[in-house]
Amino acid sequence: MKKHLTLAALATGACLLLGAAVASAQPWQRHAGMGMRGGANMLATALNLSDSQKTAVEQLHSALLTKVQPLFEQHRQQMAEIHSLLDAGNADAATIGQKVIAAYATGQKIKAAHDDFDTKVSALLDSDQLTKFKALQSMRKQFMGGHGFGMMAPPPADSE
After folding, report:
1. How many structural domains compose the chain?
2. Residue 48 lies inside a defined structural domain of this protein
3. Contact 79, 150 (CB under 8 A)
4. Residue 146 above 50 pLDDT?
């Protein structure tokens, strides 16, 4: 009996932690699309791109949007489903876990698309522009927590 109560307590704790993780992901999701709009123009201004660089970045950005917009929608739906299950009050931990893993995988696809975009843009830049671009990337990662889209970052490793 003690073993079952302990397992139930652990499962409840895991669900509460998961709920906190899911809830904390939502504010970023609302802002995700805002960062996508005007991204090519923002880069052109911030990096002082030449006309040919602007054209190339606009094409890369358009391709990125085409790739990630359906993924953002899929991720939003996945997170909404997780919230619905948690809000129902009797969510099965295994089901929630599987859905969180699926949402995380979608977030990793979004991250991979952004990483590919960053690599391609970096190849177009001179050294000064690249330095500025890396600073912008760093700010984006700080805003995002340096991790996959819409998911909590793992705790930092101890540096002993």
Report:
1. 1
2. yes
3. yes
4. yes
